[in-house]
Design brief:
Radius of gyration: 21 Å
Number of helices: 15
Largest sheet: 7 strands, mixed
Helix content: 25-40%
Shape: globular
CATH superfamily of the largest domain: Type I PLP-dependent aspartate aminotransferase-like (Major domain)
Structural class: alpha/beta
Bound molecules: pyridoxal-5'-phosphate
Number of domains: 2
Order of helices and strands: HHEHEHEHEHEEEEEHHHHEEHHHHEH
CATH architecture of the largest domain: 3-Layer(aba) Sandwich
Strand order of the largest sheet: 1-9-8-5-4-2-3
């Protein structure tokens, strides 16, 4: 059985095309999943609990964690737990994946889109403070590409307003910013991580809520599994009869399986090694792409850490080719580039359901949407592949 993706994997066995992203999985993850299959308990149970405990100790400071089957589910649960509902407004950057805003709609609330800062493409804190109304219930900062948003400054900009901060930390594992390690929730109410296949660690599909708010954690635990007050594993392993439970709310089906959690435990153990590899690739790109007519990503400040989930560059005005031409030419050269993001305000759904999408100007996101593209950066890349990405970009831009 060949399971390793570390040398390109079976899906891309020819080794010619460099995919935009690949999970970094091997025999250890396969053995962990196999152990779960053999155990007779494959849905949420001991592995999920162990994964939550290990994730809490990784973040430190006694933070509570709630494992779920996606970051989208985690964001939904966090907003539900703080009571977001119809009539409420939630401030979201336009420069993000649609999941950040769709969870606001799940609860019948209205996303208010804001522009981003030109250097980081992170939510503009200045714009956020201008968008706060008496209906604002929460803000969802996104640590774009893995560069941490300045959460203490965001909190300060919100002034005394009773506005909660739920971090979309899908790119930020591990990232360190002015609020410490993302997930520590020193200033925010919760942070939600993603273990989707392309993220910095993966469980196939999966996510984790980190919070210091015990009520939020408790509500999310109940709502991730049908609103039942006692999870199945506790029912089947405790002395009280397994059939007895109470439904306290119309909950969701968002629990993480033990098979996924077992994969996650191995990935978490390898997280630093994988992060070091991505960081080395970022350093290589930064050194070898500096002569090109591109704006390279903002480096983290002193003492901060960038997770380098994405390496996003922007073409400069003098660049001879358009963004779309560059992405096409890279594909012809065998390099899978991508675009993060088509900003939300350009999508038809959000033009109707995020009223700010049509009424507000987004000058930074507008121009970045014609300039930005992402090149492959993942721990399973070989040195030869990293070199080839940089060389291809030189050829394309010559
Ligand atoms: C990937 C991603 C999500 C959603 O994560 P899932 O685990 O796939 O639900 C949310 N927000 C951002 C910014 C993402 O990149």
């Amino acid at each position: 059985m060949k399971v390793s993706t570390r040398d390109g994997g079976d899906v891309f066995a020819d080794g010619e095309f460099i995919p935009f992203a690949l999970p970094d999985l091997g025999e250890e993850e396969a053995a962990a999943v196999s152990r779960v299959i053999g155990s007779g308990w494959i849905t949420s149970g001991r592995e999920m609990k162990a994964f939550e405990e290990e994730f809490s100790s990784f973040i430190g400071g006694g933070v509570s964690t709630v494992a779920v089957n996606s970051a989208t589910a985690g964001l939904h649960l966090a907003l539900e737990a703080i009571g977001v509902g119809p009539g409420d407004e939630v401030i979201v950057p336009t420069w993000t994946f649609t999941a950040t805003a769709e969870v606001v709609r799940y609860l019948g609330a209205t996303p208010v889109l804001v522009d981003v800062d030109d250097d980081s493409l992170n939510m503009s804190i200045e714009f956020v403070s201008r968008c706060v109304t008496d209906r604002t219930k929460a803000v969802i900062p996104v640590h774009f590409a893995g560069l941490a948003v300045d959460i203490p400054s965001l909190r300060e900009a919100l002034g005394g307003a009773d506005v909660r901060i739920i971090e979309d930390a899908a790119h930020a594992l591990p990232s360190i910013g002015s609020d410490g390690l993302v997930g520590a929730c020193n200033t925010s109410d919760a942070a939600v991580f993603s273990f989707y296949a392309t993220k910095t660690m993966t469980t196939g599909e999966g996510g984790m809520i980190a919070t210091r708010d015990v009520d939020l954690a408790e509500r999310a635990r109940v709502m991730r599994l049908h609103g039942i007050d006692r999870p199945a594993f506790d029912r089947y392993t405790s002395t009280a009869p397994a059939w007895r439970y109470d439904v306290v709310a119309p909950g969701f089906k968002y629990n993480m399986t033990d098979a996924a959690a077992a994969m996650g435990r191995v990935q978490l153990g390898r997280l630093q090694e994988m992060a070091d590899r991505r960081s080395a690739i970022a350093d290589y790109y930064t050194e070898h792409l500096r002569d090109l007519p591109l704006v390279l990503p903002l480096e983290p400040g002193d003492g901060n850490v960038h997770a380098w989930h994405l390496y996003v560059v922007r073409r400069r005005p003098e660049c001879p080719r358009s963004r779309d031409e560059i992405v096409d030419a890279l594909a012809r050269a065998g390099v899978g580039a991508s675009v993060h993001y088509i900003p939300l305000h350009q999508h038809s759904y959000w033009q109707t359901f995020a009223p700010s999408a049509s009424s507000r100007p987004f000058p930074v996101a507008e121009s970045a949407s014609h300039e930005a593209f992402s090149i492959p950066i993942y721990s399973a890349m070989s040195d030869a592949q990293v070199t080839r990405v940089a060389e291809s970009l030189h050829q394309v831009l010559m």
